[in-house]
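Lecture notes, part 5. Sequence design as translation. It can be helpful to think of inverse folding as translation between two languages: the language of shapes and the language of residues. The source text, in structure tokens, appears below.
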């Protein structure tokens, strides 16, 4: 494209776009630590109710990533980035001043709309405005922002929540406003990139309803009678059936059919879905254990969470250096088994003392994620044609976010409102999920074929 920028401008652009993407992921990890403090602000809120502060964001985000990316490609990535950033920032203010729990949940959903708009637009801008020699490094930096958000989100969130959890959302205001002004000035206008049809909005809505209904059924399983649960289950099945129908018949399905004709793509995304379910459940469970059973305040809990996420980039780098010649499926399965060993150790030890019972297992879990995750994400799109890489990445992110939502919902169903007594069962649940994902990873067989037909 003719909008490529100079070396100095490329550095500024990369920092700006990565900072915005970091902000959207940071909120997810901040809320994990702030959840107990939020519950104290709204007396009478059950864990099932509080879980929607997390899942409202995740469900909406996962459903809108693919269509938002297509809109950005079609109508301009800079415009999509600015609109998403503005909406995310304004919704953050709404979260900070929310008068009640469900108002907070509603503003979290609006935040997710903004995040879904700016995330694919930020990656698209990196690919379109940077010189070709700068793109690989910039994309790697962009892709690792979620790891750093996972490491520092709990610490930042804990520090702010010690004063008030509302500051965790107010933090986004100065960052968002500065980023908006800089983006408006620095980012070149991006030309319309494609004339392809907009992905099916009905299909996107069906994804949100399916994931939302399954999550609702899980978190309310212990509180509802059979009738309401059957109603929610019926809604989930109907939405899933509608999604399958729309994918099979719509001219521009939200989940492109041709991608799922690539065996490695389908199996890798199934593995990602189950793996991220385990990841979402274990992260929330350890955070809750620290603040309920161990009695840590938010900031101390954030510091105690830090070592596990720090293992992820360390072991990711070591794996890429040492296991470059190994078959990806064996690397992925090995990492997931390591993750499973850590969660099983948590279940066996029961989380009695942090230094003896939790920290060693938490470090093992972080190491396993670092070994598996980069290779797993890369394997999901490795056999796709270059023209399908961006769309495939959107589907991968949808699978990741869907997994987070389902894992959190499953954990809440196991814990119920008696949080202090159910952690061992929750960690057995995590172990089962991650070992299932290790088994499915063994079926990921990459080929040299990079072209698939519609």
């Amino acid at each position: 494209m003719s909008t490529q920028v100079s070396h100095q401008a490329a550095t500024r652009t990369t920092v700006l776009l990565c900072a915005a993407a970091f902000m959207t992921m940071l909120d997810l990890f901040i809320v994990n630590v702030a959840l107990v403090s939020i519950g104290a602000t709204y007396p009478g809120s059950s864990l099932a109710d509080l879980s929607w502060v997390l899942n409202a964001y995740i469900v909406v985000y996962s459903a809108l990533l693919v269509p938002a990316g297509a809109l950005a490609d079609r109508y301009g990535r800079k415009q999509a980035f600015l609109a998403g950033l503005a909406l995310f920032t304004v919704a953050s203010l709404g979260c900070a001043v929310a008068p009640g729990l469900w108002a907070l949940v509603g503003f979290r959903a609006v935040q997710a709309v903004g995040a879904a708009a700016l995330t694919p637009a930020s990656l698209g801008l990196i690919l379109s405005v940077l010189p070709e020699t700068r793109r690989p490094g910039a994309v790697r930096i962009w892709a690792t922002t979620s790891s750093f958000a996972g490491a520092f989100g709990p610490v930042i969130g804990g520090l702010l929540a010690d004063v008030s959890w509302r500051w965790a959302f107010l933090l986004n205001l100065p960052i968002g406003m500065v980023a908006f002004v800089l983006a408006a000035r620095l980012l070149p206008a991006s030309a319309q990139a494609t004339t392809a049809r907009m992905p099916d909005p009905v299909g996107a809505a069906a994804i949100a309803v399916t994931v939302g209904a399954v999550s609702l059924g899980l978190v309310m399983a212990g509180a509802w009678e059979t009738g309401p649960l059957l109603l929610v289950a019926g809604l989930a099945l109907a939405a899933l059936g509608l999604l399958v129908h729309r994918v099979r018949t719509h001219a521009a399905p939200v989940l492109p059919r041709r991608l799922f004709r690539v065996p490695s793509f389908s199996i890798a995304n199934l593995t990602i879905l189950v793996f991220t379910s385990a990841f979402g459940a274990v992260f929330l469970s350890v955070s809750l254990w620290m603040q309920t059973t161990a009695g840590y305040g938010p900031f101390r809990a954030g510091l105690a969470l830090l070592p596990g996420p720090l293992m992820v980039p360390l072991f990711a780098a070591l794996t890429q250096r040492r296991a470059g010649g190994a078959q990806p499926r064996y690397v992925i399965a090995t990492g997931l088994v390591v993750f499973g060993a850590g969660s099983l150790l948590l279940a066996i030890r029961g989380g009695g003392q942090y230094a003896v019972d939790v920290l060693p297992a938490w470090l093992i879990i972080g190491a396993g994620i670092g070994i598996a995750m980069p290779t797993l994400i890369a394997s999901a799109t490795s056999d796709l044609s270059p023209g399908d890489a961006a769309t495939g990445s959107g589907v991968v992110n949808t699978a990741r976010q869907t997994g987070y939502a389902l894992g959190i919902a499953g954990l809440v169903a196991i814990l119920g409102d008696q949080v202090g007594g159910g952690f061992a069962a929750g960690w057995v649940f995590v172990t089962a999920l991650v070992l299932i994902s290790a088994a499915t990873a063994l079926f990921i067989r990459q080929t040299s074929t990079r072209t698939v037909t519609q």
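The translated text above is only one of many valid answers, since several sequences can fold into similar shapes. DSSP finds 16 helices and no strands in the chain.
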